[in-house]
Amino acid sequence: xxxxxxxxxxxxxxxxxxxxxxxxxxxxxxxxxxxxxxxxxxxxxxxxxxxxxxxxxxxxxxxxxxxxxxxxxxxxxxxxxxxxxxxxxxxxxxxxxxxxxxxxxxxxxxxxxxxxxxxxxxxxxxxxxxx
Length: 131
Ligand code: 5GP
Fold this sequence. Notes:
Low-confidence stretches: none
Shape: globular
Structural class: alpha+beta
Bound molecules: guanosine-5'-monophosphate
């Protein structure tokens, strides 16, 4: 069965899309740890990130670098943090989180549920900075 992220790529499940190319897709995390929290995935489904080929892993990180630049340009923050967990969704992904302080990256804490208008606004601001 296709992962929930493959279904997002296929357009079967809606997402706040930030950017995509032939191989990679970036979209807002539905329950962010901080506003602007974005997921970057390979379109090809693979559970464990370190089972990706060298080229695919490198391409994922290079695409994530461009997304991080867009987040940093759109959201006031010191840096964009990067984390890989993968305990919930079995489709490799990188978390990108705009950071003002270390606690902005607390995945064990309470996740946010932001109003749709705020998610749409964040999405448009970040997507508008993607180069
Ligand atoms: P992980 O697998 O890295 O532990 O966590 C998966 C992440 O995906 C979580 O931060 C969760 O909020 C996010 N997530 C799970 N399902 C969906 C979904 O359907 N849409 C979006 N945009 N994010 C999701």
